[in-house]
Automatic annotation (TrEMBL):
GO terms for molecular function: oxidoreductase activity. This is Thioredoxin reductase. The keyword Oxidoreductase applies. It comes from the Bacteria. Keywords: Flavoprotein, Oxidoreductase. Residues 17-295 form the FAD/NAD(P)-binding domain. The keyword Flavoprotein applies. Pfam families: Pyr_redox_2 (PF07992). InterPro entries: FAD/NAD-bd_sf, FAD/NAD-binding_dom, Ferredoxin-NADP_redctase_2.
Length: 322
């Protein structure tokens, strides 16, 4: 844990924001909404790569019975946060440094000082090597979260693609929804005996051949193996891992686990006082509702912390609120 020198009271008014939020996904925008409604000066710096933006339609997010696309949800959250005074700017945060008043943050050749900070940068899924992966996601043939949309695959021909142990574990979960589940685990051998036994237990078809090509069809995904076999599936779930977008925080020396997920306490505060993390960049269940709950927790903790050191005062209410 690193500690910056205490700020002299005479310098307190020089902080640009009470809180800067790195990342404009559901977690970051929810934190901005809460902080703005607490009359805190907050800024969201958003690189525009939220994982939620890939969702064609989510039907398990509460309050939207017909479902809602990820981009529509993000736009609603942006509008709501803006309505209460949160500022949102496009940019990629390049560096975070400790400062006597909190943190100095640099992005797009701009630098500002924030008293506290929230990292909400999420993760980046490793997608299969295929020319049209993004189009396949938009069409609903390539899917990233069985917890989110497993219900919608009921009865479909589904494949999970990845390393044997991980892929078979995901496939066993998908057997809740379909009796036509396969695993594509190139190179699976007797060393994966326990996973293979699990596949047999759940009546999961196992394809161990090396994959030559994945291709999106109008009605699904086609898999061509090196041996010349062709398999077609309605839906394919890649199980190839993901990268935690935590590098900018790690350069500050923030504690993380072996995968790069930021470690937090019960209020979402990291090992650096005043720096919080929410959403997929934190270890745990990767769900929008989880990120939103974490954001509410972090924003409230930040407000209470700032209230204990109440310089400068909060922003005035905006008259355009309805």
């Amino acid at each position: 844990m690193t500690r910056a020198p205490d700020a002299p009271p005479s310098e307190a008014s020089r902080a640009d924001y009470d809180c800067l939020i790195v990342g404009g996904g559901p977690g970051g925008l929810t934190a901005a909404l809460y902080l703005a409604r607490f009359r805190r000066r907050c800024l969201v710096v958003d690189a525009g790569c939220s994982r939620a933006g890939l969702i064609p339609r989510s039907r398990n997010y509460p309050g939207f019975p017909p479902g809602i696309s990820g981009n529509d949800l993000l736009e609603r959250l942006r509008q709501q946060a803006d309505e209460y005074g949160a500022q949102i700017e496009h940019g990629t945060v390049e560096s975070i440094e400790l400062h006597p008043l909190g943190f100095a943050v640099t992005w797009n050749a701009r630098r500002c000082i924030a008293r506290q900070l929230i990292i909400a940068t999420g993760i980046e899924d490793t997608l299969p090597q295929m020319d049209d992966a993004r189009q396949a996601i938009a069409a609903g043939h390539l899917r990233l979260c069985a917890i989110c949309d497993g219900f919608e695959v009921s009865g479909d021909s589904v494949a999970v693609y990845g390393e044997a142990e991980c892929a078979i574990g995901h496939a066993a979960f998908l057997r809740t929804f379909s009796d036509r589940v396969s695993v594509i685990a190139p190179g699976a051998t007797a060393a994966d005996e326990q996973a293979i036994q699990l596949a047999a237990h759940y009546d999961i078809r196992l394809i161990c051949a090396e994959v030559q090509r994945l291709h999106s069809l109008d009605d699904g995904i086609e898999v061509l193996t090196v041996g010349g076999e062709t398999h077609r599936f309605d839906i394919l779930y890649p199980c190839l891992g993901a990268r935690f977008r935590s590098e900018v925080a790690q350069r500050l020396g923030i504690a993380c686990d072996e995968d790069g997920a930021l470690r937090v306490d019960h209020q979402q505060q990291t090992s650096q006082p005043g720096l919080y993390a929410v959403g997929d960049v934190v270890a745990g269940l990767k769900q929008i509702s989880v990120a939103i709950g974490q954001a509410a927790q972090a924003a409230t903790a930040i407000h209470n912390s700032l209230e204990a050191n109440p310089w400068p005062r909060r922003q005035p209410a905006r008259t355009r609120l309805r």
